[in-house]
Amino acid sequence: xxxxxxxxxxxxxxxxxxxxxxxxxxxxxxxxxxxxxxxxxxxxxxxxxxxxxxxxxxxxxxxxxxxxxxxxxxxxxxxxxxxxxxxxxxxxxxxxxxxxxxxxxxxxxxxxxxxxxxxxxxxxxxxxxxxxxxxxxxxxxxxxxxxxxxxxxxxxxxxxxxxxxxxxxxxxxxxxxxxxxxxxxxxxxxxxxxxxxxxxxxxxxxxxxxxxxxxxxxxxxxxxxxxxxxxxxxxxxxxxxxxxxxxxxxxxxxxxxxxxxxxxxxxxxxxxxxxxxxxxxxxxxxxxxxxxxxxxxxxxxxxxxxxxxxxxxxxxxxxxxxxxxxxxxx
Length: 330
Known about the structure:
Layout (H helix, E strand, L loop, with lengths): L2 E3 L6 E3 L1 E4 L10 H13 L4 E3 L8 H10 L8 E6 L15 H15 L4 E6 L8 H13 L3 E6 L4 H14 L3 E4 L14 H8 L2 E4 L30 H5 L5 H17 L3 H10 L4 E6 L4 H7 L9 H11 L15
Parallel strand pairs: 3-4, 3-10, 4-5, 5-6, 6-7, 7-8, 8-9, 9-10
Antiparallel strand pairs: 1-2
């Protein structure tokens, strides 16, 4: 495993992070979830990402139990706040001071820890003054319950505003967590330059496009049993955007390029996002330990410029680049 600094902060994270969205507490039984976490730890992964909304808080609890007994100082535990949790009352969502404070304390209990390494705003809240949100985060930092702060799927303008307040409050806003992969590059034009100016890194989710970039889905064929596209708990909704015939044809054109590099398609996809110097870590999920073992091999891989150009040519027009696709609900 290799490690990168998160923005201009002193915090190092593993190039491959383990995330449990759509798996722990939902798609995967706890015994299997623990096996995947153990596989990640054995491979040198130190960064673990979750959120209170995943499986309506159950994912945090599973991760907390899976990491119990590990040396806390050797881990970077990351979670998020924004989406509705609990019974869905008016204060059970968003980035108000009340919801942030209550959510942070509940996450600490579920994760079985005294502090969160990286606490992230899961989306931008248009209904709450940004100053209220950032002051609440600042208080958690000053109380020692949160060490670093991040955002997720914020626009460049929102990141710039948040970073200005963070400087004023003297708190470490160090990362953004966007979707980013060969097929989804909407952060490249505006978000990445804004983060570079503000001293922030990307911790990216969906580096293999919900499994599409593994090559498991074939045009004209039913999705493999047990795959994300068959998950009725929400996974199918996220993967369907990548299942068009033209996208799947583009992925097929990547196969010889992966073979040429001596990588699986999944390893090529994860290695590709790590070529972006503003990316500190790529989050992988897994329903089986062998998926972890395969994907972590992308750490430290360097792709030649000719191969990067060939990937662009193979995918052609199926790549989504529109920066307007980064947005939060109103």
